Amino acid sequence: MIDLVERVMVAIGERDAAVAETEKRAGEALRQLPEREGPAENEAATWAARP
After folding, report:
1. Which of 14, 26, 34, 39 is 20 to 30 A removed from 7 (C-alpha atoms)?
2. How far are the Cα atoms of 8, 9, 10 from residue 29, in angstroms, in the given order?
């Protein structure tokens, strides 16, 4: 049973790391978007707030 719990905890940690990395890349892309595409800051902020 402990082995199963350990595997679940490791999987959750790996998922959390993947989500954090994806959110970091998305944030970097959103910061670059106004420079490349030109939307207003408030528009980019609105996109960032979407689920």
Report:
1. 26
2. 32, 30, 29
Q: Which is nearest to 44 in space by CA: 22, 35, 36, 31? A: 31
> Residue 49 in 3-state DSSP?
helix
Q: Report how far residue 24's alpha carbon sits from residue 34's, in angstroms, rounded to the nearest whole number.
A: 17
Q: Tokens for 22, please give them.
A: 């994806």
- List per-block mean pLDDT (blocks of 10 residues) for the chain, which spans 51 residues: 93 97 91 68 68 61
Instruction: Indicate if the alpha-carbon torsion angle 33, 34, 40, 45 is positive or negative.
Output: positive
Helix, strand, or coil (residue 26): helix
What pTM did the predictor assign?
0.60
